[in-house]
Protein: Sporulation protein YtxC
Organism: Desulfofarcimen acetoxidans
Amino acid sequence: MAQGISISATQHIDLLKSKLGRELRLLENEGIDIEFKEKPTGDYKYLNCYIKDSGDTSSQKDYRSIFSYYVADVISDLILGYWESYIIKKIILESYYYFEEEERNTILNYTLGLTNNTAEISEVDFHKLRRKTKILNKLMEYLKNNDRINIDGFIRFRLKDYMEELYDMVEKAVDEFMMEREYKEFIQLLRYFVDIQESRLEMVHVIVLNSGVFKLLDEKQKVINSEFLEGYVMDLIDSEINYEDLLISALISIAPQKIVFHRMDDNSAFNSLTTLKNVFTGKVQECSGCDICAQYRQ
């Protein structure tokens, strides 16, 4: 009697059949002959996969085990490659419906960046392999005792840990999106202050010392007089504030036409430089080495 597995799903059945067909052709050399029968029913499509009877009953159990592995492997790849983005989009739509469509699309892209972990190629491979291994093991365990599988239902009821992981990733993406949005709003506010502020100096040199402390010089390379900063410093003196906040406040109060940024090493104050470039659009120049840099490095 022919053995088989009946697979049903609301989507990607044609792709499943194509991928299974390619993979299972490798089994022909093992004497395993597979037959497919496809049938649509309502919202679901069914793909019935049969191992044709070879007449050798002693090998049927082994055939079934090998066959199940190939089916589980292809389904796990499809879940990661196709269902995953659909599931994430659905989570965002259901849990964060109050965002605009464009904002939800941005959150989707942030989440997909987390699932793919684009920081390092090796990390991408590791995170995907870890998720695939979890899904594959669950599928193999299920197919050991079942010859019918509904992929949509399997994801919903049998992959709860995987679903929770996707929910966590969406939540992290929303946090990242909110921080990015707040940062942009903050930058816009600072730009407004710069635009309405009367310029008090033509040029300011910002020297970033290795300790993280900033030093401000005018175009004649003299330390900027406290009279330019007095009001802001008094406002900030009792606050919990870092050097970067103080620097930006000071520069807004001066509103220079040009800012030259001097760093003592390539890694120092990168965030400060980025923020300044965003606030003082077109007015910030990064120094690649000059007499001022040489003097303060000594």
Notes: The mean pLDDT is 84. The first strand starts at residue 3 and ends at 9. Strands lie at 3-9, 34-41, 44-51, 148-150, 203-208, 214-218, 258-263, 284-286. Residues 160-196 form the longest helix (37 residues).
